[in-house]
Backbone:
C-alpha cells in the first residue's frame, strides 16, 4: 500500500518532467506506432494473398499480435529501466544510492522512470485487440473479459521477469543490454501461431522463454481452438517466473560489491 | 644451436600472428554478436513464416514468385537490412545542437565527400562481418545462391549504386535538421518508412499495385530491393543494365538535390563560440 502511494509520487514527478517537453512526449509515444505499422502492413499484404496461415485468418493473427503487443507495452512502460540497469545505474554508481534508501531497491529502480514510449505500443495493441475481437465476433462475456485482462497482465509479467533475470547479469558484467536483447528478441517467434514452427520452437516458447503465454495460448482460448489446461497456465507461469527472477535478483544483490568510485 | 634459436623465433612470430585471430574476434564488440544472433533468429522466423504462407497458397505462386525465390529474397534481405537503417538526421541534429558541425565544416575536405567515403567503407566492413550469415542461411534455412559470377557482379554494382543513393538521400533528408529540432521523431518516422519500402520485410513484387507505386517513387527500394532481387533470381541478369541506369538516374538526382539542400540550409546556421 505504501509502495502504491510511492509509485504515485514517482509517476507524478516523471510526468512533470515529461510535460516540460510536450512535443517530445508526443513524438516518443507515437514513435513506436510508426515502427509497428511497417510490420502490420507486411502481415496485411501477405494475408490478402492467401486465405489462411496454417488455418489462421488475418483477424486471428491480429489477435495474437495484439495480445503480444499489449503484454510488451506493459514491460515497456513500467520496466524499461531494466534494459539500461547495467549501463545507467550500476556503472555510474547511481544504483548505490538506491541501496541506502529505506525502500526496496528493485521497486526504486522500476519506479524511477516510467517510459512514455510504451504508450504507443499499448495503443496499437489495444486497437488490434478490439479490431480483431469485433471482426471475429468473439462473445463479450464476463469470463472472456476477465480472461483477457489476466492474460495481458500475466504476459506483461513474463516479459518483465525475463528482462529482470537477464538484467541481473549487470552485477557481474555491467553491459547487461546484450544479454537482455538475446533473450528478449526470441519473443518475435510469438508474433505468429506457434504451430507454424517445428515442435522444438513451440516447446522453447512455452517452457523456456514462455512468451507463448503472452500471445498464442490466450488467443487459442478466445477463439475456442484450445480448451486444455495449458490455456489457463499463464498466471501460474508468470508468478513462478517472477518469483524465480526476484530470487535471482536478491542473489545478484548479495554478490554486488559496487563499482568503486 | 642457432637453428634451434631461429626455429624458436619463427614459432614466436607465427604464434603471435595466430594469437591475433582470437583477439580480432574479441575486438568485435559484444554488439556485433548480438546483432548476428538476432539476424539468425529473424531468418528462422521468416523462413518458417514464408513456408507456411506458401503452404496456405497451395504451393502456387505469390505475386508471381516461387517459394524458393521468396525464401532467397527474404533471407538475403534480412542479412542486408541493418545496412539500410540510418538515423543520420538525428546525428545531424546533434551536430547542430552541439556546434560540432563547425569543426566538420572547418576541415580542409568537403564535408559530404568525407562522410560519403566513410559510408562506403562502412558498407565494406558490414559486408565482411555479415558474410558468415549467408553460410548459416544456406545450411539451415534453404538459401540458394547463384553460381554465375556475373550475377554476383551485377549485384555488387547495384548494391554500391544503391548505397550512394541512400547516402545522398539521407544527406538531403538530414538537411531538414536546419529547420526543426524534432530530429528524433523524424528519424524514427524515416526508419519505419525506409524499413517497409526498401523491401527489408518482404519482396516488393508482392505488394498490391498502389503500394508498389508508392515504393517506386521513393528511393528506398534502390538500396535493398533492387540489388537483392538480382541476387535472389527475381530480376533476371539480362535486366541488370536497365536497373543500373535507373539507379544512376536516382544517384544523379539525389546527389544534386542533397548538395543544394545542404548548402541552402547551411546559411541558417550560427554556431556560437565558447
Residues:
Amino acid at each position: 500500500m505504501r509502495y502504491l502511494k510511492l509509485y504515485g509520487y514517482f509517476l507524478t514527478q516523471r510526468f512533470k518532467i515529461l510535460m516540460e517537453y510536450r512535443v517530445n512526449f508526443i513524438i516518443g509515444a507515437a514513435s513506436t506506432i510508426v515502427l509497428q505499422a511497417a510490420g502490420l502492413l507486411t502481415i496485411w499484404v501477405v494475408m490478402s494473398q492467401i486465405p489462411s496461415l496454417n488455418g489462421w485468418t488475418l483477424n486471428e493473427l491480429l489477435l495474437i499480435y495484439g495480445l503480444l503487443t499489449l503484454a510488451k507495452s506493459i514491460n515497456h512502460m513500467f520496466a524499461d529501466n531494466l534494459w539500461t540497469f547495467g549501463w545507467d545505474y550500476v556503472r555510474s554508481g547511481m544504483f548505490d544510492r538506491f541501496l541506502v534508501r529505506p525502500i526496496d531497491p528493485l521497486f526504486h529502480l522500476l519506479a524511477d522512470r516510467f517510459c512514455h514510449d510504451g504508450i504507443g505500443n499499448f495503443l496499437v495493441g489495444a486497437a488490434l485487440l478490439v479490431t480483431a475481437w469485433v471482426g471475429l465476433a468473439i462473445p463479450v462475456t464476463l469470463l472472456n473479459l476477465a480472461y483477457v485482462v489476466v492474460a495481458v497482465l500475466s504476459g506483461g509479467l513474463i516479459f518483465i521477469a525475463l528482462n529482470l533475470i537477464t538484467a541481473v547479469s549487470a552485477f557481474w558484467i555491467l553491459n547487461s543490454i546484450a544479454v537482455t536483447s538475446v533473450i528478449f528478441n526470441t519473443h518475435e517467434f510469438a508474433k505468429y501461431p506457434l504451430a507454424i514452427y517445428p515442435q522444438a520452437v513451440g516447446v522453447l516458447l512455452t517452457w523456456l522463454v514462455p512468451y507463448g503465454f503472452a500471445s498464442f495460448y490466450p488467443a487459442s482460448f478466445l477463439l475456442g481452438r484450445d480448451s486444455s489446461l495449458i490455456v489457463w497456465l499463464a498466471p501460474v507461469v508468470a508468478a513462478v517466473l517472477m518469483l524465480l527472477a526476484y530470487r535471482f535478483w536478491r542473489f545478484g544483490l548479495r554478490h554486488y560489491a559496487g563499482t568503486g568510485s | 644451436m642457432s637453428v634451434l634459436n631461429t626455429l624458436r623465433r619463427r614459432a614466436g612470430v607465427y604464434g603471435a600472428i595466430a594469437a591475433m585471430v582470437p583477439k580480432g574476434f574479441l575486438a568485435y564488440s559484444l554488439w556485433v554478436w548480438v546483432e548476428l544472433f538476432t539476424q539468425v533468429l529473424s531468418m528462422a522466423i521468416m523462413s518458417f513464416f514464408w513456408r507456411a504462407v506458401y503452404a496456405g497458397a497451395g504451393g502456387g505462386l505469390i505475386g508471381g514468385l516461387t517459394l524458393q525465390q521468396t525464401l532467397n529474397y527474404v533471407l538475403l534481405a534480412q542479412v542486408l537490412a541493418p545496412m539500410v537503417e540510418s538515423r543520420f538526421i538525428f546525428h545531424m541534429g546533434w551536430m547542430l545542437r552541439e556546434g560540432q558541425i563547425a569543426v566538420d565544416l572547418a576541415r580542409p575536405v568537403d564535408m559530404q565527400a568525407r562522410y560519403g567515403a566513410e559510408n562506403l567503407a562502412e558498407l565494406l566492413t558490414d559486408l565482411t562481418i555479415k558474410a558468415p550469415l549467408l553460410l548459416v542461411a544456406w545450411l539451415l534455412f534453404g538459401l540458394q545462391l547463384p553460381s554465375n559470377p556475373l550475377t554476383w557482379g551485377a549485384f555488387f554494382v547495384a548494391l554500391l549504386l544503391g548505397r550512394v543513393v541512400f547516402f545522398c538521400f539521407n544527406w538531403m533528408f538530414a538537411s531538414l535538421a536546419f529547420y526543426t529540432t524534432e530530429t528524433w521523431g523524424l528519424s524514427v518516422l524515416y526508419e519505419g518508412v525506409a524499413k517497409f519500402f526498401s523491401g527489408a520485410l518482404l519482396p516488393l513484387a508482392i505488394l498490391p499495385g498502389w503500394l508498389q507505386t508508392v515504393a517506386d517513387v521513393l528511393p528506398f527500394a534502390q538500396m535493398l530491393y533492387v540489388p537483392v532481387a538480382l541476387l535472389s533470381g527475381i530480376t533476371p541478369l539480362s535486366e541488370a543494365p536497365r536497373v543500373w541506369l535507373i539507379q544512376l538516374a536516382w544517384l544523379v538526382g539525389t546527389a544534386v538535390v542533397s548538395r543544394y539542400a545542404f548548402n541552402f540550409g547551411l546559411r541558417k546556421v550560427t554556431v556560437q563560440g565558447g
Residues 111-141 of chain B form the longest helix (31 residues).
